[in-house]
Structure formats: structure tokens, C-alpha cells
Amino acid sequence: MRTALAAAALVSASALMLGATPAASPPLPARMADTGGGTQLITAVAAGTGSTAGTVTWWDRRGGKWVKAGSAAARFGAKGLVEGASRRQNTNTTPTGLYDLPFAFGIKAAPSGTVYKYRPVHQSSWWCEDNASRSYNRWTEPRPADCRASESEHLVAYPSQHAYALVVGFNYHSRVHGRGAGIFLHVNGRGATAGCVSVPADAMRRILTWVRLGRGPHIAIGTTGGRTAITRY
Predict the structure, then answer these.
(1) N or C end of the chain: which has fewer CB within 10 A?
(2) How far is the C-alpha of 55 from the C-alpha of 170, rounded, in Å?
(3) What is the rounded CA–CA span in Å between residue 57 and residue 67?
(4) Structural contact between residues 148 and 192, judged by C-beta atoms closer than 8 angstroms
(5) What are phi and psi of 31, to 5 degrees?
(6) ∠ CA 191-193-198 to the nearest 5 degrees?
(7) Which pTM does this prediction carry?
(8) What's the confidence (pLDDT) of residue 40?
């Protein structure tokens, strides 16, 4: 047995000396349970559920293979990440899971080259987060009477974060009141987020000019391992 192991080690060492490299592991999207069925994917990965920082990477599927298109440092909720299906509102946690990207918006004009649906933010633009409102987890313009300002997000009030943003489809299509509202991929603020994912402004501009509705883009949010591992989604 020792002789066989030594021979294998010698062959491996010889291969490395000849310039051979170990087989690379498949790209992250190829290791995921689901990528949404499209040909564009954004992954937002943190080391663990207690992390407030990680990496956002955007990918293209070309010729049957996933290819990295770009990446940037990312920030998550101040209280880390939590399974999206069990998240509660106002917990400062980022929901893990796989979500679509309904539309983009921004206080600033869409970056040149943007073709994704992009809504300009006005003084009357709000994101309703009032659990008692019929407009819960929706863009409203103006804010409806049943949506309290104290329970909602006045989008123009966050000039840095909402300079450019993409809506994350968390709790968006089949709304569960109390689970959470207003989860975006947006520009960095001063620190960790209230539950969104954020990246530097330049990265957000690059993502907006890259993303294409016709290619079925999704975002997957998760950790490197454990029950919220991004590969589970």
C-alpha cells in the first residue's frame, strides 16, 4: 500500500512539474440546485449567517456553461442572513433564497446602455412596508392613505443607496404580511444594510448595463455552507 501511495504521489508531482494543473471545480451556478431557468444569474454569498459582508458575482450562461461576467464586494443585513421563508420584518436580516428581479429604479438616470425596465424615483415615490396596507411590499406613487409613512420607505430620502437599485423578488409575488418588504440590490450606504444587498456604485452601474429581462435573470442569496448554503437554492 505504501509503495502504491508513493508511486501515485510521484506521478502527481511529475505532472505538476510538467505544467499540468488540477481539474478546476465547476463554477458556482453549476453547483446550485436551481438557477431560475434563465441565462443570467447574480450570486450574493456570505461566509455564514452572522456575516455582514461577502461577494456579489454576476454570471452569463454561454454555450451551456456558466461564465463569470463580474464581481464586487457586497454588504448584507446588520444582523446577518436568514432563511427567506422564515424571515420576519424589521429584523435587519437579509433573506436567503432564489428570487427574480422585477424591475430597476433609481434617483439618478439609468446608466448609459441600460435596457432593463427602470423607474425614476420622484419626490412622491414610496415603497410601502405597512403590514396593514393593501399596497404592502409595492412601489407606490403617491403613497396611498392606508400606507403609513412611518411604516414605509420614502425612496428619495436615501440618495446614496437608491441612486441605482434592482428590486429583489423576495415576498413580492405571493406576499406574506410580516415577512418583509423592500429588499433591493442597491448602492452601498455607510455600513451594513437593513436587509438588502449592497455593492459599490460602479458595480451597480455595471450590473444595470449587463442585465437583460429577456434572459430571465435571477439573484441567489446564501452562505458558503450550512442550512442556508447558496448551493441549496
Answers:
(1) N
(2) 19
(3) 10
(4) no
(5) -100, 0
(6) 85
(7) 0.90
(8) 99
